[in-house]
Task: structure prediction
Amino acid sequence: MPDRLTGMPSAPPTRAPASWRPSPRARVGSWLADWAVVGLWLGVLTIAGLVLRPALGLSATFTVSPGSLLASDIAITLATVVPYVCYLALTESSSRQATLGKRWAGLVVTALDGGPPSRSAIWLRNVVKALPWQLAHLGAARGILEVQEGWGLALVVLSLALAVLCAAPALAGGRGIHDRAAGTRVARVATAGAAP
Result:
């Protein structure tokens, strides 16, 4: 299009490169959608527990011993935390590089250069990301069973601190400790290949 003053063709407008950083709204939206997936799994476990408990003759009360506490910790980890980590890692290491929540929000997990991350980086990212949840489970179990309550409180406080270190930088447009540990980042789909 010609310039009105000179009659010469004007240069096309230049745009500043779009940031790879997702908005806080997109991050929260993706978390809520993924928590809905986790909530669905926990609902299935709850229904299964209600149905199977009478069939297996399980009592509502039991004596807490070091062995039964360890068995409880292992059962909770295998039933809740391990499937959560598998869901996150398998979906983020797929060709889409995103959980269902991230896909819905238009986000992907990338390496720092914007390319696909390695599978080991994705697994490390999600083990670190799930650590606050695991610690909270361990702490809450001790509170519910009224054993090792000091340890339980310490585990819950530690889980909250780690959750903040994962989430707060992400909300500010940065990388949480899980992304820093793994050398990954969450980017908007349109700018996934752009270097930071």
Observations:
- Strands lie at 107-111, 184-188.
